[in-house]
Amino acid sequence: MRQEVPKNLTEVKVAIKKAVDDDSVKTIIFDSLTMFGDNILYPELVRDVPDSRSGWLDYRDAISGMLEYCKKSGKSFIFIALASDVLNEKEAVLKTVPAIQGSMKNSLSSHFTVVLKTNVLVEDGELRYVFQTNKTAKDKDNEAKSPFGLFDELYIDNDVAKVIEAINEYK
Q1: What's the Cα-to-Cα distance from 82 to each of 21, 33, 79, 85, 170, rounded to whole Å?
Q2: Is the Cβ–Cβ distance between 162 and 117 less than 8 Å?
């Protein structure tokens, strides 16, 4: 089932509820949290309000509330977000975080059990598009994580259907 692109927060909530209530829908892909924040939440809740501090709180609460509703829905959700490298000046390292505005970028991954990071590897002169399943000592400042035993490899094919299959088998 493909949805029309919602144009405001109410339409997003209605679309999610409609998908959750549809017994034929097993997995819902939310593409993307970045666009949701930039094109819906920021204009509606932050940009034009007299007190931007309360607007940013509303922005955070809207994302948190949506994520909590999705977790409790009984459906499988995949949330996509662009990545952004942010300099941690204290430690002088780049940290990869979701490209969303506000304070949620630093804590968004805590809402999820599985966080995959897209990467491109060069193998035998060919590009291979992959998901990174966990962080390593070399790149400990990214948000990739998955439960022990879910994936056997650090890099898996960039194939969402295989990810869903692996998660369903893991349960």
Answers
A1: 28, 8, 10, 10, 26
A2: no
For the chain, the residue count is: 171
Q: What is the side-by-side strand order in the sheet with 155-157?
A: 117-123, 126-132, 155-157
pLDDT in tens, 36-74: 999 999 999 999 888 888 999 999 999 999 999 999 999
pTM greater than 0.90 (yes/no): no
Q: How many other β-carbons are positioned within 10 Å of the β-carbon of residue 15?
A: 16
**β pairing state of 27-31 and 76-80:** parallel
**pLDDT higher than threshold 90 for residue 105:** no
Token pair of 129, please? 């598009």
* Mean pLDDT calculated for residue range 89-103: 81
Query: Residue 66 and residue 70: Cα distance in Å, rounded?
Result: 6
Whether 106 and 134 have beta carbons less than 8 Å apart is answered as no
The DSSP line for 101-112 is: SSGGGGTGGGG-
